[in-house]
């Protein structure tokens, strides 16, 4: 009998929130444990289809439900996750088209800042933040406070390069007037 336990963690962003899904494989598929943010999903709340895919739903109050499906990739033999019927990697790619995210320290406190690019709404540590929006040439910016520290996110449309006429929307974060790191995934 083997004591080897396979453990895999998936991070799933949803609007200004993110969920840590942890999957622990036991000796056999029936021993699988699934938890979301440290809370185990009971086996009775997970459905298994004839192919062995295991489905469950993350119910959220503000952002809609996430329909998740765990499956064994036949080519790699690794457990993978689908969210709302698409692979997690494709789901995250779509997410980062709509949202920019920063993880930064302000006044000694770690903050996760999420910007909805379509409406310029801002969340800090999962909480909606009141902000002021302004238009500028080729874009706009939002201003808000975190612990009395002024924050500005500038969103502008820039040409990709001298030989490429297409444009790309970029976001830049300033903390108390100082340029911060570029946006990136909250966790990958």
From TrEMBL:
The lineage of its organism: Eukaryota, Metazoa, Ecdysozoa, Nematoda, Chromadorea. Signal peptide: none annotated. GO terms for biological process: negative regulation of extrinsic apoptotic signaling pathway via death domain receptors. PANTHER family: FAS APOPTOTIC INHIBITORY MOLECULE 1, FAS APOPTOTIC INHIBITORY MOLECULE FAIM. It comes from the Eukaryota. This is Fas apoptotic inhibitory molecule 1.
């Amino acid at each position: 009998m083997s004591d080897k336990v396979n453990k895999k963690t998936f991070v799933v962003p949803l609007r200004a929130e993110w969920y840590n899904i942890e999957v622990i494989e036991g000796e056999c598929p029936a021993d699988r444990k699934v938890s979301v943010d440290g809370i185990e999903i009971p086996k009775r709340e997970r459905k298994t289809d004839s192919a062995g895919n295991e489905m469950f739903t993350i119910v959220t109050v503000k952002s809609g439900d996430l329909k998740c499906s765990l499956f064994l990739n036949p080519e790699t033999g690794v457990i993978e996750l689908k969210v709302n019927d698409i692979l997690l990697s494709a789901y995250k790619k779509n997410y980062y088209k709509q949202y920019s995210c920063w993880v930064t320290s302000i006044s000694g406190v770690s903050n996760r800042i999420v910007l909805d690019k379509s409406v310029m709404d801002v969340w800090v540590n999962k909480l909606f933040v009141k902000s002021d929006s302004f238009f500028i040439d080729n874009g706009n910016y939002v201003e808000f406070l975190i612990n009395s520290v002024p924050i500005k996110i500038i969103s502008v449309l820039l040409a990709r390069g001298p030989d490429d006429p297409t444009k790309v929307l970029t976001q830049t974060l300033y903390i108390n007037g100082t340029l911060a790191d570029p946006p990136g995934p909250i966790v990958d």
